[in-house]
Each structure stands twice: as C-alpha cells, then as structure tokens.
User: Fold this.
Amino acid sequence: MVTVRIDGREKQYGEGTTYETIVKEYQPQYDNTIALVSSNGKIRELFKKVKKDCDVSFFTLRDSVGHKTYVRSAIMLLIKALRDVAGADYLQKVKVEFAIGPGYYCSVKGDVELDDALLRRLNQRMRELVDADLPVVKKSYPMQEAMEIFRRQKMKDKEKLFRYRRSSYVNIYCLDGFYDYYYGYMLPSTGYVKYFEVMPYEDGLMLLLPEQQAPNRLPVMEPREKLFQTLKKTDAWGRMMGIDTVGDLNDKICQGNFNDMILVQEALQERRIGEIAEDIVNRGGVKFVMIAGPSSSGKTTFSHRLSIQLRTYGLTPHPIALDDYFVNRQDTPKDENGEYNFECLEAIDLKQFNKDMTELLEGKTVELPSFNFKTGTREYRGNYKTLGPDDVLVIEGIHGLNDATSYALPNESKYKIYISALTSINIDEHNRIPTTDGRLLRRMVRDARTRGASAQRTIGMWSSVRKGEEQYIFPFQESADAMFNSVLIYELAVLKQYAEPLLFGINKGEPEYYEAKRLLKFLEYFVGVSSDDLPKNSICREFVGGSCFHV
Assistant:
C-alpha cells in the first residue's frame, strides 16, 4: 500500500493504482475535467501508476498545462481519424500549421479531396473514437526503433528531429495502432476529448476546440483573413528557404549555412517593411502611422526600420510613444486585485493625446509630453513639434489599433499596422510552436539584459500580460491596414543560449518551475548558435542586445 496525500488528507491505495483511478474519486468536486496531476512536484499523466507515498494535486482543463494537453490529444485524434477515413496510404502529409483564435489550421497533402462528404465522415469518425474511449498508450522506445516506426509511417520529419536528440530513448504514444510523437503530456483516452469540430478553412482544415477559460463549450469561429494570409506568407518564406521544421533548421545550421539563412531572412523582412512604407506613401495624406502589437513583438526596432524606409521616399518620420500619455500614476485605474492597470485604455490621457494630435494636424506647434516612469508623472521638457508637409508621426502603443484611442483624428490621416512574432516553424509536422512561447523567451532574455529581471519574475507576470493582450490588442488586429510578422526563422536557436541559464535559475517548488522545465525541454530540440553574425538592425538584437537602434 502507498499513502497519497490530497488537500492535507491521507488515503491508502494499492501500489500500481493509476492516477486516473484516484482522480475519479475527486472529479465530482471540480467543475472542469481533471487532465493531469502533480505528484511530489512532478507532473504526471493520468495513466501513470502510483509507486510510492506522494502528495498529489490536480490540473484541470482550465489550467494552462491542462488545456495544452487537451489540444495535443485532440490533434492526435484528428490525425488518426483522417488516416482512417482517407486512407493512410493516400495521405502524404498532415501538418498542424498555426492557431487562428480557438482554431488550429491543418494543411493536408496527398490524394485526398477535402470535400463536404469527407469532412462529415471525419467528424463522425472522431466522434466514434471518442465514444469508444480508446486508451492512449505511452511507451519508451530506443531511438533507432522509434525512428524505424516513423519511417514505416512515412513521417520523415520525426526521423529528422530525432537525429538531434541526445537521449537514447524517446516516448511514443499509440492510439488504436497509430503511433505518434508529441511534445508534452497527453490525456489517458479518447473519451476525454468531448468538444471539437472540424470544418473547411481556405485550402485546408480547421480544428475548432474550446478555449482555456471555457473548456466545456465550443466557441464561435471568427475568420481572421489578414492574420491567416500573413501566416501563410511566412510559411511560404520558410518553404522557399527549405525550413519547415526544427529538424530542417538544425540541418541548415549543421551544414554551415547559417549566415546565408540570416541574410535571406533579414532581406525578406526588409522587403516587407519596404512594401508597407510604399503603401503608406501611395495612400496619400497619412500623417499618423499607428503601430500596435503584443508584448515582445519587436515594435521598437520595426518602427525604426519603417522610419528609415519612409525617409527613402522623402518623408520625415517622428516617433511618439503612447506611453508618454499615461495619466499620472495616482490617477491610474486599478484591477480587481487592487493593482495599477497600466494596460487598460483608461490609463492613457486620451483627451490630451487627441487634442495634441489634432493641433499638429492643423499645423500648430505642440509641446509633447514625456512620462517619467520613476516618479509616475507626466513631464514637459521642451519637446516641441510642428508638422510640415513631409512630416509623419510614427506612434507606438498597445492601443494604437483601437479607434477609440484616436477618436478625433480623421481616418484618412491614419495608417494602422499590427505587428507580432508569429512562429513560422514547427517542432515537427504535428507539433506546432505556440507564438506565445517565442514571445515569452524574447521578453525573458530582454528583461534580464535591460532590467535585471529574473526568468521567474517574467514568467510570473506573463499571464497578466497575456490577459491584457487578449482584451486590448487581439480584438483589433483585423482592423489593421497592414500586418507584419517579426519572427525570424532562426531566432530560437539564438535565444536558446541566453534563455537556458535564466530558466535553470528557477528552483523546484517555485510556482514558475513547471513552465521553466517545459521551456527547457522545448529548447533541447534546437542546435544553438551564436548571435555574433546578426545584423545590427535585426529585430532579434532588440532582445539579445547589440542593436544599432536605441531599444
């Protein structure tokens, strides 16, 4: 017998009892499905067995790690069902490309027609597998044997990925004879994946799943055409460079092609910045370029590079930070926890901002403010501006896309740009890299360098940052005149060298330990490279240092 402590109470179980058996006793006490457990500080899947005395706590589908587990399990269910209804021999490739809101876009290659009849059979087959409550079996295989399994299933991407793994064994999941590899935890059986819908989307499939905050219902899928096309363009860049997965990236690095990769990637980004600048000029009458995007998108470097491109057309750009229009700290609204909410729209003095911008548009001279973040007050230091015929203001801030921010300015005078770091490569075809992971690593490296902040602090603040993005940025992204993806296909191999020491500094038992461990495991997939050869104007320099801009 082993002793299991849950919420301070002890209970005896037979050695070899699964965590799922224990969870079923406690599930009625929870509104959301329990997906994983923590046993003596280590995350365990529910099909694992109790082998010794332990303290156990639960993760539900409403926890981040639980939601990610649901998504992975649903993806495996989709691919298994697609192989069943279309025929594995007819499928050349199924790739989970990227997330569009609550949906996961998948491309399908092979002798398969994604018509209504196939989609009906696909949804039906997925439901049959869920109703059958089939087990998801996890087993550790020697590396060579694992590579042979995937060779037989024509999954060359996994063969390539495993070539760079240092371990001798790899964990593989099996569902009803279908073998697959997943980065992260899985649910114990198909019966847990209750909510899903597969629908046509552009030239592929969209797997619609519940969002983390509401795991028991499907949300409404809203098309995001501009975001989709931006992601498709970046995906095309990767294919052109021969880099579709981390294995491809590692191959290029090990073949000595890293410098060429940098030059091509940077040139592609510069060309896109030039296209945006040309569109601004051709639009005519633009006086306010509004730039917004989530945390660690590279907004500052982008605004500098865009300004240079605008100068090649004879314009004179002037940078303005919306943050300089913060209300005085004592007047800043507070959130439900009594903390200052610097990310809400009310934290900006909109009346003063619109008054100043309107007067500039009328040709008047205006003294612009600067916000002193140490004293928490707005100051005036003689920064006078007058807009000439060739002057344009480049305004950066998280609320830039919200028309409520610039309510007094005529629409024809504004050009809105949404910028984000939208991950462009996968770990392999079935394991996408969440955009938020790349941005979190960027911020972690930058904050350690510029603010002396620990990785623990950055991770601890991340959920609050993400909440602000969901509320104040993402709802307005489709209103942008242009979108720019600031991600660099090579950057995670560079960030690895900076992020790993920071993550190792988080000790077991800290609330941020699980996330640090997950990110460390994630970074193991990459062959690390030095930042020495990065151009001085690279967006990556905003985070690792050495930029020619003041960032």
Summary: The radius of gyration is 25 Å. The first strand starts at residue 2 and ends at 6.
